[in-house]
Design a protein that fits this description.
Distance between the termini: 35 Å
Order of helices and strands: EEHEEEEEHEHEEEEHEEHHEHEEHEEHE
Structural class: alpha+beta
Oligomer: single chain
Radius of gyration: 20 Å
Strand content: 15-25%
Largest sheet: 5 strands, antiparallel
Low-confidence stretches: none
Number of strands: 20
Mean pLDDT: 97
Shape: globular
Length: 351
């Protein structure tokens, strides 16, 4: 276990932003993770959990407490069942399951961050979500001061949310269990139209697992969503805003605003949800509100490849990034009456 003091957090985040932590501890075993969490709780010390750093926006003043970097390792594959430590690199786990001929997370290739973060956000992309394959999450329960095993149902998964996100101060994810599919080397049914088109097949069809993974990686790379230290479009937290979910009245108001702004025939993206709400596209909202790819003149700008990514062009501060985010939020609200919600976790700052 490594312990450092007054150490910058910026190098541990994909945005490369943020001031120092008063204390930074790197834990390589579950036992150390639990011990450090208990010690912080006993002392009343603020605790920040750090995995891959792909979903953190850390304030320029840093974090006045203990930052606990979870660097646990270990993957076990038994048939279609997979167990992975929270500190494992997510993209590496995807590669291993594809190599093992297991389908279910191949379209989540290239997503930065650690395994432990995926159930927290209910990570999803290109037609797959981890909630469909997670069978259990082993976590330390800070309220009950014991290690618990939560079933899929107990995780309370929903769009980009879970019990872990609803109660961010309660659980520390230690291990994640998945059940995947042995489909004879084929992917799961392709549920995302862009992926199917890129592979030359129809929605719902299957392709070779490796082809599905490679295609998703290429699509993500084209949008600046695969980490590349030489490409500032990837110095981001990925999608900075979640796609809005609108009830019937909100959606009707939204459509009216769209037609007033863009013309009577304008039709915004609309994806009906099982609960009666309608999901629309945050990227579309940002673009139609006047914030195109590459928007901005300062050190923090919208990615030149994707309007959902707010990027550090190399010498930005967190306040630079937040100023841009606030401008986008205000512009979308003025145009369409919708308040965008940030997806990454804010540490010591707020929009």
């Amino acid at each position: 276990m490594q312990e450092l003091f007054e150490t910058p957090l910026a190098p541990l985040t994909t945005l490369r932003l943020g001031g120092p932590a008063r204390r930074l501890v790197t834990a390589e075993t579950d036992e150390d993770v639990v011990a450090q969490t208990r010690a912080a709780d006993d002392a009343g010390t603020p605790l920040l959990l750090v995995g891959g750093g792909s979903n953190l926006v850390v304030g320029d003043k840093g974090f006045d407490g203990t930052a606990l970097r979870i660097a646990t390792r270990g993957v076990r594959i038994d048939g279609t069942r997979v167990e992975a430590a929270a500190g494992e690199v997510w993209s590496d786990l995807v590669a291993r399951t594809v190599a093992a001929g297991l389908a279910g997370i191949e379209c989540l290739a290239g997503i930065p961050g650690s395994v432990g973060a995926t159930p927290i956000q209910n990570v999803g992309a290109y037609g797959q979500e981890v909630s469909s394959v997670v069978t259990a999450v082993v976590a330390y329960d800070r309220a009950e001061r014991r290690t618990v095993r939560l079933t899929n149902g107990e995780c309370l998964f929903s769009y980009r949310s879970s019990v872990f996100k609803l109660h961010p101060e309660r659980y520390v994810v230690l291990r994640v269990h998945f059940t995947l599919e042995d489909s004879g080397g084929l992917s799961g049914p392709l549920r995302y139209a862009e992926t199917a088109r890129a592979l030359g097949v129809g929605p719902g069809e299957r392709v070779a697992l490796g082809a599905a993974r490679d295609t998703v990686l290429a699509l993500r790379s084209g949008k600046g969503m695969v980490l590349d230290p030489d490409d500032h479009d990837t110095w981001s937290a990925g999608s900075f805003f979640t796609n809005p979910l609108l009830d019937a009245d909100q959606y009707a108001d939204f459509v009216g605003r769209v037609r007033d702004r863009l013309g009577a025939d304008a039709a915004p993206p609309a994806y009906p949800e099982a609960d009666g709400r309608t999901k629309t596209s945050a990227a579309w909202l940002i673009d139609k509100a006047g914030f195109a790819k590459g928007y901005g003149t300062g050190p923090a700008r919208i990615s030149t490849k994707h309007t959902l990514a707010l990027t550090n062009r190399g010498d930005a501060t967190t306040e630079d990034l937040l100023a841009l985010a606030r401008e986008v939020v205000a512009g979308v609200y003025d145009a369409f009456g919708i308040v965008l919600v940030n997806e990454p976790v804010m540490v010591g700052v707020a929009l």
